[in-house]
Specification:
106 residues, alpha+beta, 3-stranded antiparallel β-sheet, 51% helix, Tryptophan synthase subunit beta like protein
């Protein structure tokens, strides 16, 4: 979901990943108005990157769930996949432990 920032005429002028004082309205990335804004702004690369980041998080959670339920063993994953998952888990722990807030604007 995106948080939409509008101008005085009600036109979308920015999309945020998190709510802001000027952006509290939520819209799906597939909303016609959002798609029109992305087309106009030429910002499809940023939208795809946002989607990729969300998809990676889902995959991480899926792997974690499968390991916890003993459907797969973590060590059965390729070594490179294990290293990447461990690195992201470590990074997420560091971010959450320092209460780091990131406000990205597309």
């Amino acid at each position: 979901m995106f948080y939409v920032e509008r101008d005085g005429e009600g036109k979308i002028v920015a999309l945020h990943k998190s709510p802001a004082a000027s952006a509290t309205e939520q819209k799906s990335p597939m909303d016609e108005e959002v798609i029109a804004f992305l087309n106009e702004a030429g910002a499809w690369g940023e939208a795809l990157a946002f989607s990729d980041a969300a998809t990676v998080r889902v995959i991480e959670d899926l792997v974690d769930l499968l390991v916890r339920k003993n459907v797969i063993n973590f060590t059965e994953l390729p070594e490179q996949a294990q290293q990447r998952i461990k690195a992201r888990q470590s990074l997420r722990e560091k971010i959450s432990s320092t209460d780091l807030l990131v406000h990205d604007i597309i």
